[in-house]
Amino acid sequence: MEFLGFMGAPIVMCIVLVGIHVQLGLHVVRRGVIFVDIALAQTSALGAAVGVLVGIEVGTPYSGLFGVAAALLAAWGISLTRSRSGRVPQEAFIGIAYVVAAAASILILTRVPHGAEETESLLVGSILWMGWGDVLQTAVLYAGLGAFLYFGRDKFHAVTENSREAAARGINVKLWDFLFYAVIGVTVTRSVQIAGVFLVFTFLVVPAVMANLLRKDRLLITGWILGLLISIAGVILSYYLDLPTGATIVCAFGLCLLAVMFFVPAAASE
């Protein structure tokens, strides 16, 4: 009971995060824009850093607004790079966005008191200290975003699978590209405040990759199951071994991915 009393809210928060991130992650892996999440997360962190510079504490609603604004601006810019991906891979633009945002965040946070602590907060988050009120607010936000993805699933899937064919069908590819990256941007803005850049990237990419290695169908369900089980295992390990929760969960996902790659070779070779 002591474990559930202390870790119950973080466990449920992990479940909420897995729910939306796997849904987005399957698109990210299919599109081959693996680092878009970490780029948008870092851009959101840059927005939060700008907020710190003007006196806004990380984790507050105003800090979230700065993060959302920065992430949406980056989402718009990334959505424009698809048309240029014939000569330069879109992932190159995404990588540039990440490294510039990271460098700018460092420059800004070196100019404020306790900048090192703020940088660590943006990287690792504070999922261990989330309360039930935080869980409810996050669940409501992600339920709305998940519903939007569900009702627009045909267009999102069409643009993900074949943008030229989607355009031939009359779908506004640029608009739906922006909407997709905007959903990721809004999601990671909230997620980064909770879990930090590293864990957010892990939730988005690793369950989707494992699901694709293990199955050819029911990828969403598989990703959800894997994400939930590994997250809970990571939380339990962090509690009983007295380790940082976010880092433990990330390493648990990494070990499980290695296990899938090396102990389920048939899945990886098909």
Summarize the model shown.
The chain has helices at residues 2-31, 36-53, 61-80, 90-109, 115-124, 132-151, 153-161, 163-168, 173-214, 219-241, 245-263, 265-269.
Number of domains: 1
Question: Could you tell me the strand content as a percent range?
Answer: under 5%
Please state the overall shape, judged from the principal axes of the Cα atoms: globular
Distance between the termini: 44 Å
Number of helices: 12
Biggest β-sheet: count, sense, barrel?
none
DSSP E strands, number: 0
Features:
270 residues, ABC transporter involved in vitamin B12 uptake, BtuC
Describe the protein's architecture and organization:
The protein is mainly alpha-helical and 270 residues long. It has one domain (2-269): ABC transporter involved in vitamin B12 uptake, BtuC (Orthogonal Bundle). It contains twelve helices and no strands. It has helices at 2-31, 36-53, 61-80, 90-109, 115-124, 132-151, 153-161, 163-168, 173-214, 219-241, 245-263, 265-269. α2 packs parallel to α4. The longest helix is centred in the C-terminal third of the chain and has 42 residues, at 173-214. The protein is globular and about 60 Å long. The mean pLDDT is 84.
